[in-house]
Amino acid sequence: MPVAALRSRTSDRRPGTMAGAEALAAALDPAAVRLGEPAEPRTAGWEADVRDSRAALEAARDFVAGALEAGERPVLTAGHCTICMATLPEVVARRPGVRILWLDAHGDFNTPQTTPSGFLGGMCLAAACNRWDAGWPGTVDPEAVVMAGIRDLDAGERVVLEDARVALVEPAEAAEALRGQPVFVHLDVDVLDNAVLPAQFEAPGGLQPDELAAVLASVAEAADVVGVEVTAFEAPADPEARARATAMLARAIRPLIERRA
CATH class for domain 3-258? Predict the structure, then answer.
């Protein structure tokens, strides 16, 4: 079970997400690898982020590819979901028939034509599914994606999502939808209620920690988890609060990475 934290900026706009990636990786494995070089978060349009994040995305891709090639289950933490443009096509290329479980408050399925914000992190899964060209090889069949926990979609994004025939299920239904299948889990921490952990892009509602833990444990029991990526953990600045939040997430994630179906 190799564990790595991506320290490089992709579309990170606040420092807490990169700090969260390092803290969570260390909690899962004190010997976790640290990929890339830290960079200051900043606000940028999607074109600049596609260009400037290339080295970071290549590092994420290469880590996942190397682990899968070795027959291991990669666990990658990162500041933002943008990594999926590089990681998910690599997963489906190396594990034919794999499903993608997308646990997130957002669909991240905008395109340059539909995005109201120009934020690359809100467009990355659509890029991985070839709804627009971000310049990365490989693609994910959108019908292989199962989304759960989604509660904030832009109007144009919803149209793209429906046209792509991505499955949307309730979190408690995810395990049954994936039963007996290989699955790669993408977990954006903002799937949690923002009262539990703040998020850069807040959305009302969300899962409680015990609900997230139950969903992940049921997926670990029902499916063959081939890898995990965790993004957007906005680490609290207070050390005690950060330690509590990190431990809570590590407990929830651990069933995914410690058992095989």
Answer: alpha beta
d(CA 126, CA 65): 21
Strand partners, 169: 148
User: pLDDT tens across 78-96, in order?
Assistant: 999 999 999 999 999 999 9
Neighbours of 97 (CB within 10 A): 8
CB 154: neighbour CB atoms within 10 A?
Answer: 18
In the β-sheet with 33-35, what is the strand arrangement from edge to edge?
33-35, 3-6, 75-78, 224-231, 182-188, 99-103, 145-148, 167-169
**pLDDT tens digits, residue range 159-216?**
999 999 999 999 999 999 999 999 999 999 999 999 998 888 888 899 999 999 999 9
Coil/strand/helix, residue 33: strand
Q: Could you tell me if 258 and 216 are in contact, meaning their C-beta atoms sit under 8 angstroms apart?
A: no
Taking the C-alpha atoms of residue 30 and residue 111, their distance in angstroms, rounded to an integer, is 38
Q: Please report, for the chain, the start and end positions of each structural domain, with discontinuous segments joined by +.
A: 3-258
pTM over 0.90? The answer is yes
- Average pLDDT, rounded, for the chain: 94
Tokens of 153: 């979609």
Farthest CA pair distance, the chain: 45
CB environment 162-193: b (16+ within 10 A), e (fewer)? eebebbbbebeebbebbeebbbbbbbbbbbbb
